[in-house]
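#data-curation
PF: Archiving a pair of folding outputs for the training set. Convention for this channel: one message per protein, sequence first, structure tokens after, nothing in between. First:
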Amino acid sequence: MRNWKAGVGLALACITPWAHAAGFDCRKAGTTVEKAICAAPKISAVDGQLGEAFTAALKSHPDMADALKLDQRHWLASRDATLSAYPSIKEAESSVLPLYRSRIAVLKGLDAASWPKPFDALRAALPKLPATGATVPADFVKAGADVTLAEDVRLESASAFPYQPDKSLADALRDLESAGGYRKLAGSPISSVWSIGGTAHCWTEAPFRIQGKQAIAVPSPSVWGDGDCMTDHGMARIAGQYAVYVVGDGSPDEVNLDTAVWNGKGFDKGQRLVLRFDHALKAEASACAPGKGACDEFAKAAMAIATRYDRSPQKGTLDNAFPSYDKAAYAAVLKAARLTGGPLEKDGQPPELPLLDSSGRMAGFSSDAAVFPLVFRGETLLGLIDHGHVGWRENNDWMVAAWRLRDGKAEPAAAAYITVTRDKLLLATPVPAPPPQSL
């Protein structure tokens, strides 16, 4: 279990007045993250505000206490990971402060007696979402909500566009990427010319209203940013209202559904529905040297390691996971790993997950991978844990690998790939949509 004294977790164990601006007693700060929070006045202050918001949410929603506590643990883990990714707390502020503010908005949003349109039409379908792997908004349709999604029609050329475009849309059609088209929704007075391209899957949208056979450009809704990347765009009819949407679906724990409703003349101000989920870890593949065959013994050890680190992904979490390790042996393999050609070579490329077939997986470690000592089959090894990477892209799964010292070199000993999948819905609440980010 996560140490409840970390971050605002103290509120879960006992409700007491805050000893400092932070949501915990800074005199007892022990982890790297706790010390960083106490050293940063702005983050410390907002951590205290979050503690108050969480305490209030527990008091106001006792029926949700278990879900709130579990979700808070997941949020704290994501905060820890974000803070740990920066070389200094000052550099982390611009990323961490918005995380806190968003979390406070979610907790306060639980008190809303009614939901804004069009989210009010989705509320009854929430309990019917799949217990694992929910996909938004498609699963709202499957759950029986009054939702019809637009069809994304591909255009091979601008001449295939079924409307007469005005000049603005004609320009957008000429600029279509190789993957582009328009949105088709029966009865809808609006549509858009869309294009998606690049390794980050960035969207370009040009909305228009339909007037007979004419397509007349209209101002873009606030929820569609310029160069919006790694999201899912679309249009839908929700309980008789036509709306555009954006789905931010970057983690198993959270989905953000942003919508803007068409009012007949333009798009209303954006609204956001935040859905928070539990997640589950599963050992998908494992191998041990020298045979590289499936290695259930290491898969079990890797699952324990990944589960522990998943709850607190920060420096030091795994340093004492194996108190029986041989310090001298670990120092020797760590030294070898840092030599030229070793997996931790100072100026070298971070290693790939060894011993396992990497096809179809993001299997590259990053320079931020956590190094730790581990004991496997009585031998002290060098461990490495990280999310899977391909270039700058990162997934949510965990990779765990181990190296041993052999003839003065660090040699792969075992490896495991742990998938992280979305699990049951914990809570959902509407919040104001933030301004879209532009590239």
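PF: Second:
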Amino acid sequence: MKNIGLLLLFFLAVNITSAQKINWVTFEEALELQKKEPRKIMVDMYTVWCGPCKMLDKNTFQNKDVVKYVNKHYYAVKFNAQGNDEVNYKGRLFTNPNYNPALANRRNSPHQLASYFKVQAYPTIVFLDENAEFLTPVRGYKKPQDLELYLKLFKNDDHKDMKTQEAFNNYYKAFKPEFQQ
């Protein structure tokens, strides 16, 4: 009986721990999941050498409010923007033809998918709609409440009504964050 109790505690601890992590999937897995249950996709375009990318992982993607919201409303993809993955998207194969394995843990050439999504800095979070259509890249490190604005903007389709920078600025000023920092 004692062993069963310890085993139960172990499973509870594992479930509590895993409940506080974003359910990262590959790019192609997210596209497949969209076919079964349409959701928007959030792609974390990072590099292995990027300090702000590591801060985003530690401070924002570990935040319980971010984790809960992303897992409920998005398919989350973590993509090495200078890696060597092959990705099929919109009938096209994206690769990194200039990838150098000797530089795997340092700066490398940009992946074609990162270029396609207009990624020019790291980290960049790319948002795609429920049909895997490109919405926008969001550049730079974001604190949980900063990311909350974009997560809710796209989740609620509020971006569709914004035709000007002024419209976004008004949305930004009126936004009331709920996520804890």
